Amino acid sequence: MEQRSAMANNPRRNTVQSLERGLGVLEAVSAANGPIGITELSRQLGLAKGSVSRLVTTLVKLNFLVRDPETRKYQLGLKLWELGSKSITRLDIRGVARPVMEELHRVTGETVHLTVLSSEGKMVFLDKLDSTRSIRPNVQLGAHLPVHCVANGKAVLAFLPENQVAAILANRLQRFTDTTITKKGDLMAVVEGIRGTGYAVNAGEFREDVSGVAAAICDHTNYAVAALGISLPSSRMTEAEARKLGILVAEKAREISTTLGSQHDEASRGSSPSSRGGA
């Protein structure tokens, strides 16, 4: 009732009312236990359904909210994640990660890279160190890759809130190679395993000739803000090599996470985002 009165009746003179109401919608959606509808938002905010509908439509258009076509309810969109990622970038995540990347590069001789999630649900390369070997993958800074078929994408999915994962995977999972995972149930089973091991593996799922491993870099809330990864030709990626590089990249990602304030103990690593209060 207090929220309703504050939103509907607060006679502030130096604020933009529509912006204030839009931010109120975002706060209400964020506080909800799951997707929330127009009627409930109207009740909580003390605004007419028509007003709430217009605000929500605008927020969906700008990717701040996502609408479930079946339930017609709303949840937070990827634009908020992008803004949060940019905030982390302002803390110079590349500067924090670079010495660790250089050490990983020195030890492995393989291509090492740093990626973040974009508002479109793609993994974007922020930084890289190319392999010293003659045969190596071509990693382009700024390239956007689908999350479901690259190691860095799957690593990040393992440490995001459930509603954000649902928004990212809302569309059909496109097949790129014979090993691409295209069923969401199968992908989520893999993601659950990543929470236990601490690293993800790409077995030629986006490009047959390129494989890799990656681990999430988490902030003080233990949610992923980036991923540290290693890419190499599939011809060099044996099961034993994947395990060795995976353990190593997970260790190095935890070093970066610790610098960002993450409490990366075994309990938090093995739990799902929802069990840590982020659904």
Could you characterize what this model shows?
- GO terms for molecular function: DNA binding; DNA-binding transcription factor activity.
- Residues 269-279 have a biased composition (Low complexity).
- It contains eleven helices and eight strands.
- It has 279 residues and is α+β, with helices and mostly antiparallel strands.
- It has two domains: 2-76, Winged helix-like DNA-binding domain superfamily/Winged helix DNA-binding domain (Arc Repressor Mutant, subunit A); 82-276, 2-Layer Sandwich (Beta-Lactamase).
- Strands 5-4-3-8-7-6 form a six-stranded antiparallel β-sheet, with helices on both faces. A two-stranded antiparallel sheet has the order 1-2.
- A hairpin with a 2-residue loop joins β6 (200-207) and β7 (210-218).
- It is elongated and about 65 Å long.
Mind sketching the topology for me?
Blueprint: H1 2-9, H2 17-31, H3 38-45, H4 49-61, E1 65-67, E2 74-76, H5 78-90, H6 93-108, E3 111-117, E4 122-129, E5 144-146, H7 151-157, H8 162-168, H9 184-197, E6 200-207, E7 210-218, E8 224-233, H10 239-259, H11 266-270
Antiparallel strand pairs: 1-2, 3-4, 3-8, 4-5, 6-7, 7-8
Task: Provide a brief overview of the structure.
The protein is of the alpha+beta class. The protein has helices spanning 2-9, 17-31, 38-45, 49-61, 78-90, 93-108, 151-157, 162-168, 184-197, 239-259, 266-270; strands spanning 65-67, 74-76, 111-117, 122-129, 144-146, 200-207, 210-218, 224-233.
